[in-house]
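C-terminal processing peptidase-3. Serine peptidase. MEROPS family S41A
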Amino acid sequence: MIISKNIVFKYVLVGFLLMGAGGSLHAQKNDRDLQKLQLAYKLISTFYVDSTNDEKLVEDAIVGMLTKLDPHSVYISKEEVAKMNEPLDGSFEGIGVQFNIFKDTLMVVTPISGGPSEKVGIQAGDRILTIDGENVAGVGLKNTDVFSKLKGKKGTKVKLQILRNNVKDLISFTVTRDKIPIYSVEATYMATPQIGYVKINQFSGTTHAEFEKALKKLSDQGMQDLILDLRGNPGGYLKAAIDISDELLTEKKLIVYTEGLTSPRKDYIAGGKGLFESGRVVILIDEGSASASEIVSGAVQDWDRGVVIGRRSYGKGLVQRPLNLPDGSMIRLTIAKYYTPSGRSIQKPYNKGLESYQREIYDRYSNGEVLNVDSIHLDTEKKYYTKTKQRLVYGGGGVMPDLFVPADTTGFSPYYRDLVASGALNQFVLNYLDIHRKQLEAEYLTFEQFNKKFEVGESMLNELIAEGKKRKLKSDVEEFKKVSVLLAKAQIKALIARSLYTSSEYFETINPSTRVYNKALQLLLSESEYTNLLN
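Predicted structure tokens:
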């Protein structure tokens, strides 16, 4: 066992050191370093007072090396590799339901459109009581248990017994697992007769195709201008970001370039005619917009193609390459930095260590940056100019929007915060839908009817407060009634819309209650204000 582990260990270290050293330039020194590490490993394995876990020793050594590099070079165990790839690949294998654990019972929030559960007739609100004959109700089921029981290889079958409202007997289903799509374009709709809205939640292998579909759909509906929402989007595939940018930029424009010590500069250029090269564009970003999101917003900003509004983005400008190891594990190693068309690196500093790097986002809240533009501290020495209008932009810490819009704290109260954090808000919505779903589906055949006519009344708010009392929330209910009612009503209505329809209707319902979205609409409805920002 020790011999085989030494072979793996040597393979890892040789590959790692050679990549870092550029091949044979420092071969003799690398050999000495490798021998030193091998000797340390052998001494521990041979003489340590207790038994050792050889595999963990190797993994810890790799992790230790990577932590000395940058915050995004990481080791991923073989168990985590498959889980990590699912969202970026754009699919997983299972039965295709969104679920919630409601009163210690597995409840279907909605079957995924076109998935195997929908095809056999499983409906929103159904309670799954048994899975392959095993009782799963009232046993303290956790989300991880659900995943392990319902996910599985395509073509395998799972037997379910379901309790449905207003149906006396249990209903039995046999569901054949299949590929279940994970959509990265989360919402697509017309905000006004001329303005389209698209929200992208990550950049995966299917994002470009989804974005193309969204643009074509909105164009058919008369879209002239576009709001592209990248708030909270942590990034993903570089190629997806390039392809999205290519739809917005004209031919031969530089989108981004990458360069590293052992990675020569590589330019990514816009190709042929994109689907939306001429209409006005507003991109929404915040401190959760990172990596691929910053590539898109940086390219649009640097070419003066559109207006970026919101709050300063995360600041991740490092490119990782996945390097597979013999046992199925992986190293994601930073090999280059990416630069926007103007030459900006928007990577924020990480020289103070991992903890400080990760805490930086929280520091933005504590120092007031998310509320006040004057509290933002940019590296003013890293000045750059946009490619067309020569507007001043900065590097070294995220993309700074053309128009700062502070975090919207209107309506937030400690009691509302606690209602959300404790799960009382979601629980109330689940309770309400459990009782009223059939009535709502019969009354509101379309989302347009629901959005126009459905109102969250006082009785519903009182039920929400009652749910909070069950959790013994100690914050001020009266303050909630004074400042948070409109926000709570909007959130409740949006959550109901998502359950009755899709996530797109959730955003169509909730967005009009947010400041940055309304500012985007205002810009696009005002030719002069939009133009002034680009000048």
